[in-house]
Amino acid sequence: MFRTCGGLRARAGPSAGGWQPLNFDGGAFNLKGTGELLRALLVLRLCAWPPLVTHGLTLQVWSRRLLGSWLSRALLRGSIYGQFVAGETAGEVEGCVQQLQRLCLRPLLAVPTEEEPDSAAKTGEAWYEGNLHAMLRCVDLSRGLLETPGSADHVLMQLKMTALTSTWLCKALTSLVRDPRASLELSPERLAEAMDSGQDLQVSCFKAEQNHHLRASLSRLHQVAQYARTQRVRLLVDAEYASLNPALSLLVAALAMRWNSPREGGPWVWNTYQAYLKDTHERLKQDAEAADKAGLAFGVKLVRGAYLDKERKEARLQRTEDPTQPDYEATSQSYSRCLELMLTHVSRRGPVCHLMVASHNEDSIHQATKRMWELGIPLDGPVCFGQLLGMCDHVSLALGQAGYAVYKSIPYGSLEEVIPYLIRRAQENRSVLQGARREQKLLSQELWGRLLGRA
């Protein structure tokens, strides 16, 4: 079913005479089995149906009631779960990753757990401590999956900070970050020192219980970063809501001061920047320049963003300015500007500046590959690409076969854990799912070609 990477890469790289755009016509689908293509076409069409995404959790409950637990689970495992999830056990995840590696793709594991803003259901230090152990196991799993020569610096995993610290703390830190009077008390330097030494950090305006949670949260983040560094696994911190991101950036900056030294082989902690927010380009520029000035390595995952509807609804409720770009075209322009900014930094700073182009947009991928060629950035160097497992395979496969470093974001875990996670992600990525019509068309063409006996 599969061809080896090496044989295809030898004849797939960019032309020596000039940049040639990759062909995203679905030709690389010939690397996948017919059953996989049929499931992908069915699931992508289902996910493009708005009622299924909107009422997914309710439909799951009714499915269990009408069909019974066993049949309902079997249908989910054979469809949505099988398409977007690596599996539940370490063996199942390993099998998924081995299949990706045969397709010249790499895993980016994600623990499917997080706290929703203002949720009262998930509180208490025990819940966060349980998530800490899940993150540490993810580090081990990520490292163990790629114990191959030359892979030491290419192991990445996602980190959701609100799985280790509460959203109320992030909102409180965001308010303080925006207050100039609190800048010294909450500087990245002070937080980094508290993380490293375990000292009794006190924020003057916090109550004793709040200060305790802050110290516990810093300890959890430090443990994950320290262990990931020991295992040579790079952490990609997910961006979240605009009301939380300043706090997340502060915590990332504190971790970066400890773990992103070039002497440590950094960056080991990356931040995610959402192009659909109006201030992203300026913030990215400031952060890149600050890292350069401080002599720190700098890692960035660049995304368009997934919380558009919720951000606009929150702005209306709070009667504040909408933080998002006015339309998709403006978001694409923002993404293009941020991409150009980061590729320029990569070309200038070399191996201490890393970038993941996390996009399903073909124009963005073409821009990235063309600028990499023009700037002399190697295909398998400090720039990589990322897409979701089970989606955008016509782009991922073409990139991987051409020799670029391509990661697939892979949630794993039990069906009960992952299905609610997938439904939330689907609700946040409606535009991506509904925009997958081109992929559906390419899948249909490949399947009809096989049915009619065409090579």
UniProtKB/TrEMBL annotation:
Task: List cofactor names only.
Answer: FAD
- Give the reaction(s) catalysed: trans-4-hydroxy-L-proline + a quinone = (3R,5S)-1-pyrroline-3-hydroxy-5-carboxylate + a quinol + H(+); L-proline + a quinone = (S)-1-pyrroline-5-carboxylate + a quinol + H(+)
Q: How would you classify this enzyme at the top EC level?
A: oxidoreductase
Q: Please state the Enzyme Commission number of this protein.
A: 1.5.5.2
Arranged from A to Z, the UniProt key words for this protein are:
FAD, Flavoprotein, Oxidoreductase, Proline metabolism
Which SUPFAM superfamilies did the record assign? Answer: FAD-linked oxidoreductase (SSF51730)
Q: Matching InterPro entries, A to Z?
A: FAD-linked_oxidoreductase-like, Proline_DH_dom, Proline_oxidase
Start and end residues of each Proline dehydrogenase domain: 197-434
Q: What family does the database annotate?
A: Belongs to the proline oxidase family.
What function does this protein fulfil? Converts proline to delta-1-pyrroline-5-carboxylate.
Q: Which PANTHER family match?
A: HYDROXYPROLINE DEHYDROGENASE, PROLINE OXIDASE
Task: Kindly provide the name given to this protein in its UniProt entry.
Answer: Proline dehydrogenase
The species is Echinops telfairi (Lesser hedgehog tenrec)
